[in-house]
Amino acid sequence: MTKPEPNPIAALLMQNVTRELVLGVEEALMAGSQRAFGAARGMDEGHLPHVVGQLRHFHMNEALYRTFAASDAAPSPIRGNGLVTGRAGVFTLARFNIKLGLWVNGRRSQTRRQMALANSAIEPLVQPGLFDRALPPSEGVAFFVSCFSGDLNVLPDVPVSIYIAVPDHTMTGWLFREPLSLFVQRYQEEPAAQDDLANPTLKRGAQRKNQGDA
């Protein structure tokens, strides 16, 4: 499998967000989505998409909260339709859902747009030529984005993919976004250098020649 290309934002994420937390979030969002679809079974088709969307929000929020709590990631309290956030190093972490390909929908939330302002400190990592000096960021925001098919006849119970994504400070673009299935590969350590146990020997002809030269 192709190794992900080096990226300064990815490196910052890995320094602050553990692989175990990333995998835990992925599992939680999948499970929450499945519970939401199961709870919506039997509802009238006229409003089923709306019901599924609402239940995804609540069940996935609860699953994310439990994962943050189990990982000592300081989850915010669950309150109504509010975002559940966690903290890992310099990053505040949150989640949202979109239909596959509609990334622009992420900025509809005023709360998310307000959170993204913190990433002005991260932008120099990917645009160093525009700044005199890039200081180590002390604040940042990353989102776990669950992408659904948008069709209840196609993978209605789980996301098609889940991304980790870091928006720019206006949330009109993305400094970094990558499927979790690819992102977790970045944590894999380089193979340890093997000791050179070879004991090279000269061919017999060369040995006799060297002995004759002695």
How would you describe this protein?
The chain is an alpha+beta fold. The chain has one domain (8-213). It has helices spanning 8-16, 19-40, 48-70, 110-116, 180-183, 204-213, and strands at residues 86-88, 91-99, 140-148, 161-167, 174-179. It has a five-stranded mixed beta sheet with strand order 1-2-3-4-5. The N and C termini lie far apart (53 Å). The relative contact order is 0.16. The model is unreliable at 190-214 (pLDDT under 50).
In helices, the fraction of residues equals: 25-40%
The residue-averaged pLDDT reads 87
Structural class: alpha+beta
Give the number of domains: 1
Number of strands: 5
Shape: globular
Distance between the termini: 53 Å
Largest sheet: 5 strands, mixed
Q: Please state roughly what percent of the residues sit in beta strands, choosing from under 5%, 5-15%, 15-25%, 25-35%, 35-45% or over 45%.
A: 15-25%
Please write the string of helix (H) and strand (E) elements.
HHHEEHEEEHH
What secondary-structure arrangement, pairings included, does this model have?
Elements: H1 8-16, H2 19-40, H3 48-70, E1 86-88, E2 91-99, H4 110-116, E3 140-148, E4 161-167, E5 174-179, H5 180-183, H6 204-213
Label this structure with key terms:
alpha+beta, 214 residues, five-stranded mixed beta sheet
Compact summary:
This protein has helices at 8-16, 19-40, 48-70, 110-116, 180-183, 204-213; strands at residues 86-88, 91-99, 140-148, 161-167, 174-179. It has 214 residues and is of the alpha+beta class.
